[in-house]
Structure formats: C-alpha cells, structure tokens
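User: I'm putting together a small comparison set for a docking exercise, and I want a reference complex before I start. The sequence is below, and the ligand is iron/sulfur cluster. Could you produce the 3D structure with the ligand included, as structure tokens?
Assistant: Of course. I'll restate your input first, then give the structure tokens for the complex.
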Amino acid sequence: MNVQIDPKSGFCFGVVYAIEKAENELEKDPLLYCLGDIVHNSVEVDRLCKKGLVTIDHEQFKKLHNCKVLIRAHGEPPETYRIALENNIELVDASCPVVLRLQNKIRDGYQGVVEDGGQLIIYGKKGHAEVNGLVGQTGGNSIVIETEDDLDKIDYTKPVTIYSQTTKSMEGFAKIQNTIRKRMIEAGNTDPDNFSAHDTICRQVSGRYPAIGKFAESHDLILFVSGKKSSNGKVLFNACFDKNRETHFITDIEDIDTDWFDDKVKSVGICGATSTPLWLMEKVAEFVSGLKTD
Ligand code: SF4
C-alpha cells in the first residue's frame, strides 16, 4: 500500500508564525496565556499546553493583570489592545500579517463608507475570532453576512461595500456579491459606484482547493486530518470528498477504522487543513503504513 502525505497540506505561514512566537516565548518564560485556541487543532493545542501555553477566553482576559498574553493569527479588535493597556498586560502579537492588512483596509475603508451614507458588509462566520476583529475596526457598525438568510439585514437603497473573511470560499463570496447586486438593482439602486467588493480571501487557503481535489483523485482512500472547529478544514474536506467518496475526516489515529482498508485500497493519501501540523499527518502515515504488515 502506497501512503503519501499531501505536500501542500499543513500549516499556512500565519499559523507557523503564531506557533513559533509561542514556542520562543515559552523558552524564556514557562507561562504564556493565549487568547483563544492558538490553532483549530486540539492535538496541537494539547502539545503546546504541555509546554506552558494556557488558553483563556475574553472574560478571563479581562480579569488578568501584569502578565503576558499571546494574540493568535486571527487577530483581535481594538478593545483587546485597550484592555491590555489598562491591565498592564504585555501582548505578544502573533496576528497574521494578512489579517492585519485586512483590518487596516476595513478601518480605512469604513471612513469613506460613513461619508457616503453606506453600509460595510463582512462576508464571514458570525462570532468567529477573525470576524470579531474585523467588526471591531468599524466600532461594531458593520453587517456580518454568513448565509443568504442574513441578506435581509442590508438596506439595498444605500451604497454597499463588502469585504470577506480570509478563509471563505471564492465561490461563496461571488454568489453573495451577485445576490446583493441583483437586490440593489431591484431596489432601484443602479449606480455601479454604489457597490464596491474587495476580494480579501487569503490565497494560502483558496489556492489549496483545486490542488487538494487533484490529490484526492489520485488515491484510493483519503484520510483528511483536521480539528473539528477549523472552518477551512470543513471546506477542504468537502473539496476532497467531492472528488473521492472514500475520504474520511479524522482528528487523530483513534478515529481510523481499520475496516476502511480492504484489498481494493492500494494507495492512501493523507492531507489536512491550514491548522493541521505536519507531525500529526506523519503520525497518521506511520500508523497506516504499519497496517499493511499486520
Ligand atoms: S489562512 Fe491566510 S490569513 Fe489565515 S492565518 Fe493562514 S496565512 Fe494568515
């Protein structure tokens, strides 16, 4: 049985940067708080937890004083920086540069939106840490659109400026834009200057969809390794499943059912999300390679 790890799967540079920062800090100091899971992968979170990383939520953060807190790749709203200043918290800022650029873009763009009497829309997952950080750049005055059901929140007679969360799919973003434009025209708002869309999807994620589909097609069976909370994990799993129905979602080797490996399975592909560590995919590959000799 041939076992191959997808060379394009695994941590994106934003996650690598955050984990390196955490590990560097933990070498100097045995305790480091992290605001939210450093990565949407519980196995990797457990590994860093053993080194001294303590995951906290925003309520716990507010009560902390005189300590060090890591901001993960998703970024944070201005409120978090204000609390840190007030409570003498040293922030180790590992916000991904791509997310920081988007935060700046939204903050700058928001001024123009207000002057034009328009609305700033963020296409993303409600309550997601990155989206909360983006909404914070507008003082909470943006509209988050997660599904088509949310589109009724928009006033189609007014100008619309839309940005996307970095990890959304390009197809989904294009579809939402088309629906908004259609509804604006129906509302008599036909001036093209009244609609402005900014494709702010991270290419680290979007570039993986076609590649992972091809990888899935090239194997008899796929083990997709990801944390259950990972947004891009769900999307990339579906991209594999669309191309290969023998795709199984696993978080670790305990989820593997050896019955999946019948005589017809001659090649196994192992891939994952931008939050899946390479060491975990290697562990899965080692386990699967061991099966053939049993
Ligand atoms: S997916 Fe892109 S934006 Fe998100 S952390 Fe990775 S590199 Fe940064």
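Residues 2-9+206-291 form a domain with the Cobalt-precorrin-4 Transmethylase; domain 1 fold (CATH 3.40.1010.20). The chain has three domains: 2-9+206-291, 13-96, 98-165+168-201.
User: Thanks, that's exactly what I needed.
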